[in-house]
């Protein structure tokens, strides 16, 4: 059942050579949503020097998407040990480390993880010795603690999820707690399109990710977590993260984002195997392609925010500023985000003769050019993109079958033969893209789309996936 069995076996061999005290077994792991899966786990002790030398007992669960997803790690305290809650350990003994949050194959390995575990535990010892009375109480709790360390069964979540129909529970996870991530959470919550919104804050430190204010003011139905398992059973997963590395070239910046996604997409895909991935990271066309490849999801369930915001603005301008309501009905902005986006129509009125048709085309083109000029002065701020994301999530979660201009696999459209994602009008529903809406045939539009597809494909060919 392990997708990358050979890679996993090689890693475990390395662990066995370096830390021979570890033992391996297959056991049933219980996730927060109460689903279960047989997973490989290995238990043992890691040597830590904290004044004296200590052997810290740990248990690592290897997900079936390893090595592309990080393991789930717990302390395994004995009856005379207590868990010292700190920066890297919670009250249940769950271990959180920067190495896990930034997991990216092939750079990240189990040996590297254990080394960081040792280093962090030497800064802050995760366990302490109990007195005899405390040890007695600890013994009574060990059976429950064992359940937690063997899985993540949560009594509170069990009572909540068990009381409502799982099939009707609309959950959205937003990955990334920067300005865009916060904006998406607030917009989705404000539109009341989801029963629950989870914000995955993958930044290091308690307040670096910008999620502290959300925690302080307790927005209803919003959960903040650093744990991928909190995203389990999401209907929509929104990707807003962008790497903040010191890349020098545009290609380096994108490659840095790809490396970041390698540690995120397999994990969220594992926990929400039927979700629609909605990509808002930059550049959206490339990162949607990367998400599709890393998730192995069908193309219909991986979409980018694309030109949805520009299209809605475009149609609004045509209707309210230029009083061209008839044109606005079938108007879209398509292609790639940025300067190369292009206006288009999904239908047209058939004129009585060729002369009238040409006149109508020229008139429409003038109006479209005026609207596009106004659009150039409208930046895409975080809050405006957040509103666009909420609009898309609403169509998906409520199965509205509404048409949006979103980044979708364009191969086969407009004579495009490469696997690239471009913004095209699509009908969205519960399963993502239900159908692509046919565009009016316009040689100039097709030429621009083909040009965008060519440049995006050339860029993708230079990336290391």
From TrEMBL:
GO biological process, one term: lactate metabolic process
Catalytic activity, as annotated: (S)-lactate + NAD(+) = pyruvate + NADH + H(+)
One MF term in the entry's GO annotations: L-lactate dehydrogenase (NAD+) activity
Classification via InterPro entries: L-lactate/malate_DH, Lactate/malate_DH_C, Lactate/malate_DH_N, Lactate_DH/Glyco_Ohase_4_C, NAD(P)-bd_dom_sf, UBQ-conjugating_enzyme/RWD, UEV_N
Origin superkingdom: Eukaryota
Transmembrane segments: none
Residues of the UEV domain: 1-131
PANTHER family documented for this protein: L-2-HYDROXYCARBOXYLATE DEHYDROGENASE (NAD(P)(+)), UBIQUITIN-CONJUGATING ENZYME E2 VARIANT 3
Role summary: Interconverts simultaneously and stereospecifically pyruvate and lactate with concomitant interconversion of NADH and NAD(+).
Protein name per UniProt: UEVLD enzyme
Taxonomic placement: Eukaryota, Metazoa, Chordata, Craniata, Vertebrata
Gene from which the chain derives: Uevld
